[in-house]
Amino acid sequence: MSKATKKTAVILMIIILLSKVTGFLRDIVLAQSFGAGNITDAYLTALNIPVVLFDGISASLGTTFIPMFFSIKESKGNKEVYRFTSNILNIVLVISIIFIIIGIIFTPYIVKIFAMGFEGKVLELTVGYSRILLFSMIFIATNGLISSFLVASGNVYISGIVSIPFNIFVIVAIFLGSITNSYVMVYGTLFAYIVQLLFQIPFLLKKGYKHKFILDLKDENIQQILYLVLPVFFGSYVNQINTVVNRTLASTLETGSITALNYANKLNIFAVGIIVISLSTVMYPILSKLASEGNIKAFKYNISKSINIIIISMVPIMIIIMDLSTPIVKMLFEEGSFDSRATYLTSTALFYYSIGIVACGLREILSKAFYSLQDTKTPVKNATIAVIINVIFSIILVNYMGIGGLALAGSISAIITTILLFISLRKKIGKIGLKGIFTNFIKVCASSIMMGVIMKITYNSIFKFGASMLGASRKLMGLSAMMCVILGLIVYIILILIFNIKEAKEMVNLVRNKIIRSLRD
């Protein structure tokens, strides 16, 4: 992993952080404007329907497009790449229009599949919202494909930037909806998808892209990507089953459970996204290029490095979330319509989601490794196993643990399938340094547990002392959490350096050198 790659990953990490922050601000505004009740349950369910129905197409095309991009460019040049991209975009537009027509006709039945416990007012709202948001399918697919084209063309930052204008427009829509009518929020969300597309067009034109109005299903490149995309497409929809099952089961629990589960999952994704998504976005084109060149030695080296970085980064984050799940939720959301009961539901789900956070991060980079090798079947097999495990454990645990059981089922599923991906990759490309990775994992876990103990003691002491002097408050809770996290991370960094973890030293040196350069400038 070169210095340029590390620098790009750090910059992208900052961009994704800004994107995630605006996304969190969006969730906070929604929580404080509408709380956790019928409107938010209906809105989040309606927002999820087009994603489940069409995100599979978008995700599978985006995943398989990048290896195809390099293959076509190397053999036939940019002109053929533009023709290929235009053809896919046109096919996707036709498919999305068909999906929208079918969706509008059968909306009430579709809603019942996604939330079988909805009745009366909440069902009526969800049907109404869904008929509007179904039109977002056009933009979900095109946005994903255009982002993949730009990433393959060298603009890796676009994948992080593109969410920022979307989040800003949704925030405005939520605010306007809270003072007028909730349907203003829904129409505003649809408009935000359009803005997301418009935002990418100048970047697309700058790369020299010229759209062609062709629709050629017999094109050899289309047939090749269909061969690659079908397993990924199936896998994407298999993954969406988890979401449908969780939301359906949550709809049978108390009001606000879907909203609480959504916020907890967003917090979990936030933690994964900052580091893992930025790293996988940078590494995917590199791995695809190395695989196309047949440079397996460099391929394995980069995979091993990426895995170690994820472990070093994600294990302490898991411990932090487990230690501070309630203060985090209370500090971010508990205001206005978001009450203490909503905080309890969300923090419970967040705690159990965090157990699988490391596995989710590793699963992302391992899946990218298989896709780079143009092996789209192995991740799909594992995704299918993941769904079966999740469904079984969700049905069992929801009866004993409620919303916590749904989150824990997802974590158990992620851990098991990540182990299976490790085994499959080892069989496919040979040794990838699993002994060294496992040794680092043990060292990181030991450091993180010690960090967690110190954080817990520090938080309780600071908050108890502050509350006796100033009274308990969200600000005091936030300040106590921030102070104990800073102390905990200092302890963690010292410990992993003492344990002599190579990647940890490289990461610390990279940050230190950037600080020194900034001070010199």
Task: Give a structural overview.
With 521 residues, the chain is mainly alpha-helical. The chain has a domain at 1-252. It is built from 19 helices and no strands.
Series of H and E elements: HHHHHHHHHHHHHHHHHHH
Low-pLDDT residue intervals, each spanning 5 or more residues: none
Shape: globular
Percent strand equals: under 5%
Number of strands: 0
Radius of gyration: 23 Å
Q: What helical percentage do the residues reach?
A: over 70%
Mean pLDDT: 80
Number of helices: 19
- In whole angstroms, the N-to-C terminal distance is 26 Å
Summarize the biggest pleated sheet: none
Structural class: mainly alpha
Topology:
Elements: H1 3-34, H2 38-76, H3 78-105, H4 107-114, H5 120-133, H6 137-152, H7 158-161, H8 163-179, H9 182-206, H10 220-250, H11 257-293, H12 296-333, H13 340-354, H14 357-372, H15 377-401, H16 403-429, H17 434-470, H18 474-498, H19 502-520
Short description:
This protein is mostly helical and 521 residues long. It is built from 19 helices and no strands.
Features:
single chain, mainly alpha, 19 helices
